[in-house]
Amino acid sequence: MTMHNRLDPELAGPLEAWRKATKGGINLHDIPAARKLMDELAVAQMAKAQPIEGISSVDRRVPGPSGAPDVFVRIYQPTDRPSILPALLWIHGGGYVLGSVERDDLLAKHLAKVGQCVVASVEYRLAPEHPFPGPVEDCYAALKWLVAHSTALGVNKSRIAIGGASAGGGLAAGLALLTRDRAEVELAFQLLIYPMIDDRNIVSASATVPDTFVWTRENNLMGWRALLGREPGGADVSPYAAAARATDLKGLAPAYIPVGDLDLFLDENITYAQRLLAAGVPTELHVYHGAFHGFNGFVPNAEISRRFNSERDNALKRMLHR
Question: What is the pLDDT of residue 2?
Fold first, then answer.
């Protein structure tokens, strides 16, 4: 059975429309052009979306890693809120080379509303201009700032989660390892949405190795090459860059990992979930049949996307307010 035959019927038409709008998909051979195109598509999509009421936001610049620039963070919170709330540090996706706080604005508002939490969305530096460890260190700086200012923000510092989708999920997984090892911050939960966590998953597409929709094998190779500043898949890649490289997963925060079965990251996500469970980390893994990478944002009204988003939202609420 081909991948097209396995595709959820509600996702097929919008996927084809996206391929036409992007002239065949994301092309990372020209990263500035790819950024411009994806930003334009995101602006058009956000213009059609319903506004999210009852959430306010404020922009901050917080101290960056030692010797690095300040980090831009957008703070979201319910306008009608109790004095203390849990918090989510949100990390946008984009293959380590694309994306922004602005592009995730509606999602961050949604998560603040359904999770009844403060969301701090991080504008980490992008590769290839800023390879590892810059991006994850920016996220760590934002997390430390969030904890240090928890009283002023009305945040319960014992109920802080981290999360992201795709490369954002990869950064969140690396950040969870970094946070455990530095032992300065206690995390309550990690929300790893189809995370990009294994730089060894770079085999080229072939007759026996089919390509995947939206995020291709070629894109994956280029994203990892940009982040690492060298060819991926070799020796001595830090687990803070590629969490699948970690040899010890004990003591990490509970994890929630959802992924489609037509996603390039399916195998690495299943393997990571199994290893987390084996290490005694409470972990939920959800696999969605007929779903490709990022489908829930592409086609939010499809039944499978509504189910995916609802289960994600419920997991966030459950883990933040337990």
Answer: 77
Give the pair of three-digit tokens for residue 57: 């936001």
What are the pLDDT digits (tens) for 15-38?
A: 999 888 888 899 999 999 999 998
Catalytic residue, candidates 166, 198, 199, 305: 166
Determine contact, residues 304/10, Cβ cutoff 8 Å.
yes
Tokens of 153: 């923000």
* 166 counts as catalytic: yes
The answer, yes or no, to whether residue 14 has pLDDT greater than 70, is yes
* Token pair recorded at residue 97: 């080379």
The model's confidence at residue 1, banded by pLDDT at 50, 70 and 90, is low
For the chain, where are the E strands, in sequence order?
55-62, 71-78, 85-91, 118-123, 155-165, 189-193, 255-260, 283-288
Please give the single-letter amino acid code of residue 178.
L
Q: Is 130 a catalytic residue?
A: no
Name residue 89's beta-bridge partners: 120, 162
From the list 107, 91, 109, the residue with the least C-alpha distance to 42 is 107
Q: How far apart are CA 111 and CA 88, in angstroms?
A: 9
Which residue bears the tokens 């911050």?
A: 185
Looking at residue 243, the DSSP 8-state letter turns out to be G
Looking at residue 93, what is its pLDDT?
A: 98
Host H or E run for residue 260: strand 255-260
* Eight-class DSSP state of 8: -
Helix (H, G, I), strand (E, B) or coil at 287: strand
Distance of alpha carbon 145 from alpha carbon 38, whole angstroms? 30
- List, as one string, the DSSP characters of 115-134: TTSEEEEEEPPPTTTS-TTH
The residue among 135, 111, 126 whose CA lies nearest residue 57 is 111
The answer to whether the predicted template modeling score (pTM) of the entire model surpasses 0.85 is: yes
Tokens representing 293 are 């990478």
User: Which stretches does DSSP call E strand in 22-175?
Assistant: 55-62, 71-78, 85-91, 118-123, 155-165
